[in-house]
Amino acid sequence: MTKKEKVAVVLDLLLEHYGPTKCYLNHENPWQLLIATMLSAQCTDDRVNLVTKDLFQKYTSIKDFAEADLAELEREIHSTGFYHNKAKNIIACCQKLLAEYEGEVPSDLDALTSLAGVGRKTANVVRGNWYGIPSVVVDTHVKRVSNLLGLTKNQDPVKIEFDLMKIVPKEKWIDINTQMIAHGRKICIARRPKCGECFLFPYCTGGQKLAKETK
Fold this sequence. Notes:
The protein is mostly helical. The protein contains twelve helices and no strands.
């Protein structure tokens, strides 16, 4: 089986088991998605959704965040971890959105990554899930699953992103993000993978290797 054929089978199976794309972060507009994604760094989506439920009622606009008191915002987002840097970046990000983008979240990758605290992963989440622009998001689950499947040999998220862009059809880029995340959470769990239950196991070179080593 060629890598192209393997990718086609994997994509079909992921779609069959997890359906079309669904963003796990609750949001009603692009700036809420941007801030929620910034908060999700080193934090679970469930925790972020708990925090933003109240946060977005208190701060109801980009202007509110731009004018937020740093210490107060830190208290609001404390449970997401790394709260000092996150709060500082959110305020700086929203200030730049007001100053340079008329309070609108841009869809351009370079513009997004010029914002404080926004890397390619965060930018691609916004581009794909709000603007519908084909984008590959590489989080810890996508990194692990794509490596085990032999779709990439890289560990750097940016290199993995470009590797996946080369072999996954563009119209599947958005879907594969959340499908691999769902698979990583449900079956391909980092410390206790359920290889015996995995529908991708016949195509998973990394999983098969681990299975042989543990026999």
